[in-house]
Design goal:
heterodimer, A: about 220 residues, alpha+beta, 6-stranded antiparallel sheet, two-stranded antiparallel ribbon, 9 helices, globular, B: about 550 residues, 9-stranded mixed sheet, 23 helices
């Protein structure tokens, strides 16, 4: 199936909200899924699997504990959306830092869009690696190197991020469409559905504001 | 006495109130106006590439617009719709006609594919080769009347035309990635589509050409010997109607940077005109003529909605007073338009004030039109949160932008009686009664004032120094923090009014957006949907010329005599 980037983003926001994320984080999830699709990566699939694992889980257990590096989660693994957002929020710290690491992280590919935002905010390219796959991001380029099978790794025991001078490796070209696998798309659609209110007779009549005749 | 340097764009606390936004009028910066200026500046060429319809209106047509580098084609599908199925509500499933704007010139295979999908609208699927998806219903009373007159070789009476103003009414024009269409990202580099909603406006412009051709065609099929085409002047009088519902309102709240770009351009334009030191000879005369045409437009503008009836009465009075006032003003004074503007603010209703703001912009294309280049935004740039911001600064922004909300008593039922949600049935935005229906779990984040007030309270107890620290332990405020930071940078990004109050009128938001499209004749049909007219009086493709491309929106004065 071929879907537009706008569809990827709005579906992802709703699905993340449907899975229990706060609106502001659900917006981050939508941005991340879209960004991955723009770069030909499997944003819909990764988000779908992440939300499947996280559904109903609480925020506290997968948020990063940030007192010192490496960051870690009190539960099993870090959520890449919450962690990515926290990294991007600290963009200025990362510019001045030497690089940093994360402990056990779920679906690390979902971190990459946040690192790209961070690199755009600071102007300094970043390199991220896990399980022998390496990506580099800057304000206008993305490259991938190493074991690309590990892009869709469901969990990694650590992630390393460091400042680099330039993006090198195989560049990812922009895409204007996404072709997610149907199961992932369906799953996000099911989660998104939770954000829709069941219709009642009252809401049907009043909600959209039928009043005067609409046909003349 | 002010000097030019002291004249500033209007304060957002004044502009961004719903009652004022709901009184906006089209202007030189409106998207339809931008589109027609481009047609002439770049000598666009138009052709009817296909037109095949039976006497019941079943068939298809293709209208192609050729720009300097690219072509765009409206593909129209006509349907013989039984009367009982004709509804403007988004719950309808069939329409008199359905449309898509194709990127380029379609092949037969494209038309075959689209014939299977476009008439189904939301239930169908379009592709990256299409830019918009739309549908329209006939105005039954005017359509049948015009076909009847033309088939007898007669022209329709202008009074009857004026009661409706259009033969077909669109009920949605979807663009930008909806239902599989091309994303804005795919086309945004094209100069002709850089301004907002240009693909949508082009769609409607071509729909208007199609509808007028269709009504003449059907009259001709009914009476091949006797039928007459419409007189040129009467033809111009037909616009394309539109019924707009709640779906449009959340768009404005969900795109704060874009809202700022639109309002900011208009406010800067008004400010530039107010700063003009001396009027040139003849400008006062031009303004008088514009006021007379605006008065004529206000006379032709009908509504049954009690609130709009009152606003129209105020507007007509206001324009009479402006006319009288213009006789007395000194065209040779310094800062003449600023003096006029201060009088307008002092003496006229909101409708009258905003109408005058739009009219003043007409005088200075050179000052105003370049601002059209600043009405788009790259929302990715405003998305990231500045986590390094100190909590004290965030508090200060909330006090500046959401002062009204901090001072609102949110424990009162009326202050948050409403909530926005999406219905399962049509996946469309709806407005519900918070305390009467079990809808709260489904609430959309479309009440920024209340959320900002909540955030403000939470910040009082926060131990964090920076936004990043605060958000890590308070993810529930992430959405409103993003908004507040955007509104702290962009003065017109936020509606400074309560969007969930018991007395909130969604039509105010609809009207503001539609005025930027260039729509006229706002006719609210309830507090939450509105009918409008688009491209009324606009030149048809063969009439496009420098003198017509930009002076068409207000009716010509010759209509006053009729």
């Amino acid at each position: 199936m071929s879907i537009s980037l706008g569809e990827v983003q709005s579906l992802s926001v709703k699905a993340a909200r449907g899975a229990g994320m706060e609106w502001g984080l659900a917006e981050e999830a939508g941005m991340a899924a879209r960004w991955l699709c723009v770069h030909g990566l499997q944003g819909v699939e990764a988000l779908s699997r992440l939300l499947q694992d996280q559904d109903g889980g609480d925020y506290a257990s997968s948020r990063p504990q940030t007192r010192s590096w490496p960051w870690y989660a009190e539960g099993q693994s870090l959520c890449p959306i919450k962690t990515g957002a926290a990294i991007c929020d600290r963009a200025r710290l990362i510019k001045s830092g030497e690089g940093f690491a994360l402990k056990s992280t779920a679906w690390p590919i979902l971190l990459v869009p946040f690192l790209a935002s961070t690199a755009t905010l600071t102007g300094g390219p970043l390199q991220v690696s896990w399980q022998h796959v390496v990506l580099a991001v800057s304000s206008d380029a993305v490259s991938v190197d190493g074991d690309v099978d590990m892009l869709m790794c469901s969990e990694t025991s650590n992630v390393t991020i460091k400042n680099v001078s330039a993006v090198q490796g195989e560049f990812l070209l922009p895409h204007f469409r996404a072709s997610p696998d149907e199961a992932s798309f369906e799953y996000l659609t099911r989660l998104a559905h939770r954000t829709y209110a069941p219709e009642t007779e009252q809401s049907r009549l009043s909600g959209a504001g039928a009043g005067l005749a609409d046909n003349d | 006495m002010q000097n030019a340097g002291q004249i500033k764009p209007r304060d957002p606390d004044k502009v961004m109130r719903l009652a004022r936004l709901g009184s906006f009028h089209q202007s030189r910066l409106s998207f339809m106006r931008q589109l027609l200026r481009r047609f002439v500046a770049e000598s666009w060429r138009f052709e009817q590439a296909a037109f095949d319809f039976d006497g019941k209106g079943v068939g298809h047509a293709v209208y192609t617009a050729h720009g300097p580098e690219r072509s765009y084609s409206l593909i129209a599908f006509g349907n013989d719709l039984p009367a009982e199925k004709r509804s403007d509500r988004v719950i309808a499933t069939e329409w008199d006609a359905a449309f898509t704007l194709f990127d380029g010139v379609p092949e037969q295979a494209d038309i075959d594919r689209l014939r299977e999908n476009v008439p189904k609208q939301e239930a169908g699927r379009i592709s990256e080769k299409e830019l918009t998806l739309s549908r329209a219903n006939r105005s039954v009373r005017l359509w049948d009347y015009v076909v009847d007159r033309l088939s007898k070789g007669l022209q329709p009476e202008i009074e009857t035309l004026l009661e409706v103003g259009y033969l077909m009414r669109t009920t949605a024009v979807y663009g930008s990635g909806k239902f599989g269409a091309a994303d804005r990202a795919q086309i945004v580099e094209r100069p002709e589509l850089q301004a907002p909603f240009q693909a949508e406006m082009l769609t409607v412009y071509l729909i208007r050409c199609f509808v007028l051709d269709l009504v003449e065609h059907i009259a001709r099929l009914r009476a091949p010997e006797d039928a007459a085409p419409l007189d040129r002047e009467l033809r111009r009088y037909f616009g394309i109607g539109n019924s707009t519902g709640l779906g449009m309102a959340p768009f404005l709240i969900n795109h704060p940077a874009l809202l700022n770009a639109w309002i900011g351009a208009r406010e800067e334009a008004l400010c530039r005109v107010r700063r003009v030191e001396r009027a040139q000879p003849g400008e006062l005369k031009v303004l008088k003529s514009l006021v007379a045409r605006a008065a004529l437009h206000a006379e032709h503008w009908h509504s049954e909605h009690p609130l709009q009836v009152q606003k129209l009465s105020d507007l007509r009075d206001d324009l009479g007073r402006v006319k009288h006032h213009l006789k007395k003003i000194d065209a040779n004074a310094s800062l003449p338009w600023n003096k006029l503007w201060l009088w307008v603010e002092e003496n006229l209703s909101l409708e009258g004030q905003e109408q005058c703001a739009s009219l003043l912009l007409e005088l200075y294309p050179d000052l105003v039109d370049p601002l059209a280049n600043f009405m788009s935004t790259d929302e990715q740039k405003t998305f990231p949160i500045d986590g390094a911001m100190q909590i004290a600064r965030l508090r200060q922004i909330i006090e500046e932008v959401y002062g009204w909300a901090i001072n609102t008593d949110w424990s009162q039922v009326d202050s948050q009686a409403r909530l926005w949600y999406t219905s399962e049935e049509k996946l469309e935005p709806r407005l519900g009664e918070r305390f009467e229906e079990p809808l709260e779990p489904y609430e959309q984040p479309l009440g920024p004032g209340r959320d900002a007030a909540k955030l403000y309270r939470a910040l009082n107890d926060a131990r964090a120094d920076t936004v990043a620290e605060f958000l890590l332990s308070h993810p529930e405020h992430r959405h409103i923090v993003r908004r507040a930071q955007i509104a702290g940078r962009l003065p017109y990004a936020e509606i400074r009014d309560n969007t969930i109050a018991s007395d909130m009128m969604p039509i105010d938001m609809l009207r503001m957006k539609l005025s930027f499209f260039g729509a006229c004749d706002f006719d609210p049909r309830s507090d939450r949907w509105v009918r409008i007219n688009m491209f009324q009086n606009a030149p048809f493709p063969h009439e496009l010329a420098a003198e017509t491309s930009d002076n068409w929106t207000l009716p010509p004065l010759q209509f006053a005599a009729q």
